[in-house]
Write a structure and sequence with these properties.
This protein is mainly β. The chain is 10% helix and 34% strand. The protein is built from one helix and eight strands. The strands form three sheets. It has a three-stranded antiparallel β-sheet, with no helix packed on it. A hairpin with a 2-residue loop joins strand 5 and strand 6. It is globular and about 35 Å long. The model has no long low-confidence stretch (mean pLDDT 80).
């Protein structure tokens, strides 16, 4: 989702509780297409990339259930509304991408 001009990632349990709230640092509200990537590994490390560049990394610890048992949404937050824009080319991997893989994918898709 985009809030205050930056790409923001919200991860929660669907009840309105937000376990993770992480924002990028680049302005993506500029009427241009952008390539956003979020990685989350089993150790609880989450990274946010915009246009192939690492914006932020943080630990979410054990706060996030990534057991594949819950629902998954793009462009919506339980209590923060919906994305006003377009989401295209969604990919889901069964492992966290490395920074090098994110950069290669960005250069491949642009």
């Amino acid at each position: 989702a985009v809030f205050s001009n930056e790409l923001r990632v919200l991860i929660g349990d669907g009840s309105g509780s937000c376990w993770v709230n992480m924002a990028g640092t680049s302005n993506v509200n500029d009427n241009q297409g952008h390539y956003g990537v979020v990685t989350l590994d089993r150790d609880g490390a989450q990274s946010l990339y915009v246009d192939g560049s690492l914006q932020r990394t943080q630990s979410v610890g054990n706060n996030v259930d990534i057991s594949n048992a819950g629902s998954f949404k793009f462009g919506a937050a339980s209590n923060a509304g919906y994305l006003s824009g377009v989401i295209d080319e969604v990919h889901i991997w069964n492992e966290a991408l490395t920074p090098e893989e994110v950069s290669l994918l960005y250069h491949y898709y642009i």
